[in-house]
Structure formats: structure tokens, C-alpha cells
Amino acid sequence: MVVATLRKGVAMKPKFGPAERERFFELMAAGSSMNAASAAVGASRGAVRRWWAQSGPMTPLRMGPHGGMAEPVPPPREKSGRSLSSEDRAVIQAGLGQRLPLSQIGALIDRDKSVVSREISRNRGPDGVYRARIADRLAGSRRARPKPFKLAVNELLCRRIAAWMDQGWSPRLIADMLRRTAGRDQTSRVSHETIYQALYVQTRGNLRADLNQQLSLKRRSRVSRSSRANPKNPYREAFTISQRPAEAADRAVPGHWEGDLIIGGGNRSAIGTLVERASRFVILLHLPGRHTAPEVADAMIEQMRHLPEHLRRSVTWDRGTELADYERIQLELNTRLYFCDPHSPWQRGSNENTNRLLRFWFEKGSDLSTHTAADLRKVQDTLNKRPRPTLDYRTPAQALAQFLQAA
């Protein structure tokens, strides 16, 4: 009885230590089969299967009928401008074994500590242990090409994107909403760049060929930023954007607006646009006749005089002659108008972005005078009810209502 008890106690002791386990993982990463790796370290098949289930971050390689590999092992990769090499990963494993800080490990491989942190979180095993050889093989399999283009194989996703684009949604907004609704389901989400590729290169996806006309600029092909001409809107000196209070620049306080005109075909018609910087709330100015300074001033005063005084602190405009009557606007609305620097429309970025969105309804080159005041209110309400990523997916109407309630 005593001998049996001692034998039982001896059998319960672990037969294999960390060295044997690491040797097993090295053999697996090198392309060995699980049977061959278990025989090399002297462990049973059941034991090595438990090791792999607990620590292996990927499916083992399949073996061919004569013991050869049915799946090739990705070769060690040389260090490039972005990718880590096998030697880099070996240094990371050694550094973690010595409990070095990530910043010091990064300095050893001439990388930022954030690169080391991402590498460890992506390629370590379920047991939390980072093994260089397995990490290198895992990264190589993840980078395998060619990969199927998601919008060429997922018809349901294509239909969902097309439905949103038909409502005037931008590819970036669509990508953001897909990411929020899909959760961890990678098959139901794409980046905005993937959508643009499918729109401009029809061989890359199954989106409708006419969907690129739903974009705000209606382009059939991409245009380099360097080819865009800078608008020239000379204007006499007045209050400049550099004199605008800091509270307007950081959007900390509501009531600071940006404005401009959307011009129709032949410069014969226009619609005025006003955007509140903090809430992105939009007001459209109906200009049925001409868009000279008196008409623009009358329309702006009529639309903004109903706002509470704390919601009309300032207006920032481009240097267009349509706002030459700015002194009357300041007097009637008890506000202050500021003008951008010459050739700097980006200084009123909120308004520029909104005007791009509005081109979904008011196409370039069209006659904007055909739109009635009721049409403008409908478009205005539609845009103010659209979720915005910059507002944590609240709508401008909700954000403005919160400001009014707080006041």
C-alpha cells in the first residue's frame, strides 16, 4: 500500500518543465507536425495537444501524405520600413523574459514602445506568453496575399452601403456606423478607403456603377489634392479671424457660426449656408433672386434674429463681396463678423465640410433658384437629424437642444 501510494505520488509530479514546452513550440513554429514534435520532446500526444490548446494562437499546420507540409511556413522576413523581422521578435521575447520595460525593448530594435506593445497584444498566445517564432509565423499568415476584396464577395454589405449612399451619407460616415453596429464581426465592416476603391475602380467590388454620383463632388475618378485650384476672393480689411475669441476656435462655447454661399451654374444663383461650430447645426438662406450684399444681409438677419442672443455671438465668413454689408448685419443682430485670411477657406472648416454634404441635394452647375424656401427647410432638417461622428454620433439638432436647455 505504501509503495503504491509513493508510485502514485511520483506519477502526479510534472514530467516536463518550461524548457520542454518551449522546445515543442519551437518545433511547431518551424513547421513540424504535432506528432513529430511530441516525439522529439518525449511527451504524449494528449499532453502536447493540451499545451497547444492552452497556448497556441493559431491552427497547427496540416501535414502531407508522406510527412511533408501541406501548408508552407512563411519564411522569416527582413526588416522593412513597417514590418518587424524574425530577429526583432526574438529580441522582444528575450526582453520580456528579462522583464525589461517596453520602451527599452523598443530602443533595442529601433522602434517605438507602441510598436512593441501592439506586436505583443496581437501575436501572443491565449496564455499571455509571447513566443517569437510563433509570432513571426502568425504575422506572416495574416499578411498572406491575395486576400479577397470584401465588397466583391459580400452582397448584403454592398446593399447596405448603397442604401446609405442613396440617402447622401459619406463613405467615412458609413464606415463609422458599420464599425459601431457590427461589433467584432469583421465581415460586416469596411473602411471608407475600401468603399472609395470600390466606387472608383469597378473591378474591385460589386457596388452599383452609378454610386459615385451620390458623392458630394460627383467625380468619376479621384483627383490629386495638388491639382485643386485655390479660390480667389479678395476682400477689404475688416475684423480678421485672428481677432476672433479663443472660445470660438476651441468650440467650447456655442453661438459661433461659419458661413458662405453655394453657387449655382454660371454664378447666376446661390444658397447661403450657416453652420454653428459647436453643434454643427445648419441654417440655409433662401436667395431666390440675386445674391448681392443687400440680399444676403437681409436673408441672414431674417434667419438669425430668432435665435437667442447667446447663440449668435459671432459669424466667420470668407472674403466674398456678398458680405460687404456686414456692418448692418452686426448692428441688427448684435454680433461680430470675422473674415478669413485671403485664399484660406480651410479656416472655416465646419462650413466647408457642410457645403460638401449639401452638394448631395444641390449639385454643382445646377440652377439653385428652382429650390423653394420649403425645399431648403426640408434639406436643413434632414442634415440636422443626421448622426455626426464629431458629436459622438449625436445629431446637430440634439446637440443644439442640449445647449438651449443648459442655457
Helix content: 40-55%
Compute the separation of the termini in Å.
Answer: 86 Å
Main sheet: strand order = 3-2-1-4-5
Q: State Rg.
A: 31 Å
- Overall pLDDT: 79
Instruction: List the uncertain runs.
Output: 1-14, 61-80, 226-234
**What's the overall geometry?**
elongated
Q: What is the overall number of helices?
A: 18
Q: Which sheet architecture does the biggest sheet show?
A: 5 strands, mixed
Q: What share of the residues does DSSP label as strand, in percent?
A: 5-15%
Order of helices and strands: HHHHHHHHHHHHHEEEHEHEHHH
Q: Which secondary-structure class do the elements indicate?
A: alpha/beta
Strands, total number: 5
Features:
407 residues; alpha/beta; five-stranded mixed beta sheet; 18 helices; disordered N terminus
Write the layout of secondary structure elements.
Layout: H1 2-11, H2 18-29, H3 34-41, H4 45-55, H5 86-97, H6 102-108, H7 113-123, H8 132-142, H9 150-153, H10 155-165, H11 171-182, H12 192-200, H13 246-249, E1 256-263, E2 270-276, E3 282-287, H14 293-304, E4 314-317, H15 326-333, E5 336-339, H16 349-358, H17 373-384, H18 396-406
Parallel strand pairs: 1-4, 4-5
Antiparallel strand pairs: 1-2, 2-3
Short description:
The chain has 407 residues and is an alpha/beta fold.
Structure description:
The protein is α/β, with parallel strands linked by helices and about 400 residues long. The protein contains 18 helices and 5 strands. Helix 3 (about 35-40) packs across helix 4 (about 45-55), helix 5 runs antiparallel to helix 6 (about 100-110) and helix 7 (about 115-125) packs across helix 8 (about 130-140). The protein is elongated and about 90 Å long.
